[in-house]
């Protein structure tokens, strides 16, 4: 008898995989920063303003990325809330149609 292993029985959700520069994170930035500092010429160092500008750009990019994730979560929760409200409205309309149909009289 042959037995094959099953890794997962639940359906996989499609999650977008990041590629290229989008796959780089804060760890990668600090690794590049330390290598850049190690490799720079001590007699002609990088300008402090340029280094601070790079760090500020990365910080704002990280903040924007976090904000995008937060907005996506809020959007999905609002979609679920709207769906629940529509379902509740449809169920109450169905109940009022049934009750109003019972009370009508014919002449």
Number of strands: 0
Percent of residues in β-strands: under 5%
Low-confidence parts lasting 5 or more residues at pLDDT below 50?
Answer: 4-14
Shape designation: rod-shaped
Quaternary class: single chain
Mean pLDDT: 75
SSE string: HH
Radius of gyration: 29 Å
Largest sheet: none
Level of helix content?
Answer: 55-70%
* Total helical segments: 2
Describe this structure in words.
The protein has 2 helices and no strands. The longest helix is centred in the C-terminal third of the chain and has 56 residues, at 48-103. Helices cover 65% and strands 0% of the residues. The chain is mainly alpha-helical and 107 residues long. The N and C termini lie far apart (77 Å). The chain is rod-shaped and about 90 Å long. The relative contact order is 0.04.
How would you concisely characterize the structure shown here?
This protein has 107 residues and is an all-alpha fold. The chain is 65% helix and 0% strand. It has a domain of 51 residues.
List the defining traits of the structure above.
107 residues; mainly alpha; 0% strand
Write the layout of secondary structure elements.
Layout lengths: L25 H14 L8 H56 L4
